[in-house]
Amino acid sequence: MRILHTTPVQDGFSMPAEYAPHEGCLMIWPERADSWQYGAYAARKAFLQVIDAISQSEKMTVLCSEAQYDNARAQLPERVRLVVMETDDAWARDVGPTFVINGKGERRGIDWGFNAWGGAVDGLYPSWERDNRVARKFCDLLENDCYDKRDFICEGGSIHVDGEGTALVTEACLLSAGRNPDLSREQIEQTLCDYLGVQKVIWLPRGIYNDETNEHVDNVCAFTAPGEVVLAWTEDESDPQYALSAASLAALEAAVDAKGRRIKVHKLPLPAPVTITAEECEGLDLCDGEPTRTPGERLAASYVNFYIANDAVVMPAFGDPMDEKAQAILQELFPTRKVVAIPARDILIGGGNIHCITQQIPRA
Ligand code: KQY
């Protein structure tokens, strides 16, 4: 594997959309006791359902610790490849490589810098060295060359692309003080253009209320096709989410994409606010001597955090009456894929959802 110091654009590579064909998917076996309540037993059951749904149509690779290998192997379907690789947690979207392809059958990975969503400013755990090495190690495993961009802090969940020259990000995340404080908005945009191969970046002001990633775009808005997005939405004006979603809607309505198109916005309803219980908090270890959650805390629940697999769209469900409505909307937007809803409360407690725990490996 070569470590590259050029840019994907210089070399003719760009990031394909998630709805383009995948060779496979990467996930990580959950274990961290301050993220996953009660020894991660319930989280693993939810991860296993996600793995089952995606691996029906994609080659699945799961990473796990040496200590968890036998347990994970015993629970994973035979068709899933399990590889021992030490990580700090289980967020494959954020610590895995962002893949780029060149239309000549070649694929490479981008190794962004990772600092646990904000480093010393507002990072979510105190050390992240193992996570920061996952992207490069995984490129090595796949024998894909790898762009070294560790001097730029970026997580996979903070970017979406349409595959036709447009990226979607949030200002709250990309301009946060804990990521690239020495870079201007223009420099950040240029970096995204150089590495993702896009010509246009659409900036949404905000993401989902109380999203501890500084409001990753993948929880609030996602491309469903070139020129079309779903946006997490509530009609409840008293909900703090209302102003956030309304600001993003205004930004989308004012935007044109790289092809000069207006963006078609499909509102995807949010579930009623989801809060963590005292019993769930009891099952979490302390992180650096501090609780990671407090009883009654609102979790950043959103149906937008879905994964687009080759034959399926795998979406979170919360046991809410809106589950069915959201599923029906997504089914209409993805008519060639089966929309599979997976009870995801035990993933959400960790701080993210199905998109955050998966990373697609595009077909080259
Ligand atoms: O991408 C994500 N949503 C990951 C959130 C990590 C939270 C750590 N507790």
Bound molecules: 6-aminohexanamide
Return the CATH class. Answer: Alpha Beta
% residues in beta strands:
15-25%
Task: Using the CA coordinates, give the radius of gyration.
Answer: 19 Å
How many domains make up the 3D coordinates? 1
* Biggest sheet: strand arrangement: 1-7-6-5
Count of DSSP strands: 19
CATH topology: L-arginine/glycine Amidinotransferase, Chain A
CATH level-four homologous superfamily name: L-arginine/glycine Amidinotransferase, Chain A
Poorly predicted segments: none
Q: What is the CATH architecture term?
A: 5-stranded Propeller
Distance between the termini: 16 Å
Query: What class, by secondary structure content?
Result: alpha/beta
Shape: globular
Strand count, sense and closure of the main sheet? 4 strands, mixed
Question: What helical percentage do the residues reach?
Answer: 25-40%
What count of helical segments does DSSP give? 13
Mean pLDDT: 98
